[in-house]
Amino acid sequence: MDIVEAIGKVLIVGLIFGAGLPALFAVGLRLHAEGGGTNADGTVSHGNPAQRALGYVIFAVVALIIITALLWITRQTIYYYFDVKIFPFGYK
Predict the structure, then answer these.
(1) For residue 60, is pLDDT > 70?
(2) What is the pTM of this model?
(3) DSSP assignment, residue 1?
(4) How far apart are the first and last CA of the chain?
(5) DSSP labels for 13-58?
(6) What CA–CA distance (Å, rounded) separates 51 from 30?
(7) Are residues 71 and 86 in contact, defined by beta-carbon separation less than 8 angstroms?
């Protein structure tokens, strides 16, 4: 049963990061676009600035998740070469 449980965990994490992050990024794009900007004819449209700010916050969250994932993947290499523990756990 351990194998089935492990496969289920990998499936859930894959769905969250494989579909969840792109969907969150798409929501950020939508909010940013509805927050105003430049029209096709060059005129400036003034939308809701709160939506634009929320779009930037979502972009920052997505970027933070990506950077954290890259650091998590390379944590052993960084520890080996630079003797820096980025995360306080997960070292052998």
Answers:
(1) yes
(2) 0.76
(3) -
(4) 27
(5) HHHIIIIIHHHHHHHHHHHHHHTEEE-TTSPEEE--HHHHHHHHHH
(6) 9
(7) yes
Q: Domain extents for the chain?
A: 2-82
44-46 and 36-38 beta bridge pairing: antiparallel
**What single DSSP character describes residue 86?**
S
Vertex 57: Cα angle to 53 and 61 (nearest 5) = 170
Q: Are 62 and 25 in contact (CB under 8 A)?
A: yes
Higher pLDDT, 92 or 76: 76
pLDDT in tens, 25-52: 999 999 988 877 677 787 777 788 899 9
Q: Tokens 């993947």 sit at which residue?
A: 73
Q: How far apart are CA 43 and CA 23, in angstroms?
A: 30
2-22: b (≥16 Cβ within 10 Å) or e: eeeeeeeeeeeeeeeeeeeee
